[in-house]
Amino acid sequence: MRYISWDISRLSQLVDLWNSEIGSHFPMTRELFKQNSFDDENILTEGSWMAIDDDGQIAGFIVSKIWREKINIPIDKQTGWVQVLLVRTSNRHSGIGSALLNKSEKAFREHNCKKVFLGRDPYHYFPGISKDDSNTKNWFERKGYQASGVETDLIQQYQTTDKTAKPEFKDIQFTLLQENEKEQLLSFLHRCFPGRWEYEAHHYFRKGGTGREFVLLKKNENIIGFCRINDPDSPFIAQNVYWAPLFKEPLGGIGPLGIERTERKNGYGLAIVQAAVSILRDRGIDRIVIDWTGLTKFYGKLGFKTWKEYQQFYKEL
Predict the structure, then answer these.
(1) Which domain holds residue 247?
(2) Under 8 Å CB-to-CB from 68, ≥6 apart: which residues?
(3) Do 118 and 173 have their domain in common?
(4) 95 and 170: one domain?
(5) Scanning 25, 158, 232, 237, which has the fewest C-beta atoms within 10 Å of its C-beta?
(6) Exposure string (b/e) for 167-201, b if CB count within 10 Å is 16 or more?
(7) Is the pLDDT of residue 127 over 90?
């Protein structure tokens, strides 16, 4: 077995390996894998490797990331992320996974990372390890990783004939973002939700987003809340529609969302989700996913049910 550096020329082989191992519940496309595992400028190439067997085939791979972008968004520069570690079933129990992880952790240490998360990276696939995957959880625990919270993906299937009305509040408007409101939204996010949500909005506009993926909650023409939505016409593949290939009908996604702190406890949070559902339904979307959340009871009020669960893991270096 030999180990070679991350190389986009192996894209098709990497996607084939992914689909042969876990494609039945997370089908991978070349477009998504390229977007998340090659185009992301936060990839730590020194910590991303492929294991090649004697026949020249990929037996396993690991993708590592650190924060490398030069933008004014508060992301911890001493955090590392293992985006994915995958070894072909027939090659397991032979030390390949351990070798790949050791190479990743060595690179993290060389870049002064103090903490490593499994998943949760910019342009992530998973917020942790599948809660039902005991073998993988036990393996990482033996490598010194510690379990923390549980995250959930939710799903809702509407009947085509169902109607979802937009909520109505006095002096409150629910609108889609207009292109001339871009700076107002970014300013709102920087002030109220600095970090990942601001980062994702920044990339949305950088990839050509025009506003149709942001539902705004406005009061006196000022933004006091937002909700992100995604559908097949969005400018890139967002996290809550990764599973679109699992379904014949188009898949929509909701989240993240946030309400300005001083305006909370007025029912606006649930209302903006209802508005988001209404807009997606008007676009012909009957199946909607909300990813990476702990607010199962909150979204359950609108009929969303648990679909997938993940155990978070981290390691102090």
Answers:
(1) 155-309
(2) 41, 42, 44
(3) no
(4) no
(5) 25
(6) beeeebebeebeeebbebbeebbbebbeeebbbbb
(7) yes
Q: 256 preceded by cis ω (within 30°)?
A: yes
Amino acid letter at 253? G
**β-strand partners of 126:** none
Tokens at 259, concatenated: 């309400």
Query: Where do the H-state alpha helices sit in the chain?
Result: 11-22, 30-37, 96-110, 134-142, 182-192, 196-206, 268-282, 296-300
CATH number reported for the structural domain that contains residue 175 in this entry: 3.40.630.30
pLDDT tens sequence across 266-279 = 999 999 999 999 99
Contact at 8 Å (CB) between 273 and 154?
no
Whole-structure pTM over 0.70, yes or no?
yes
Tokens of 83: 């985006």
SS3 per-residue string spanning 34-88? HHHHCCCCCECHHHCEEEECCCCCEEEEEEEEECCCCCCCCCCCCEEEEEEEEEC
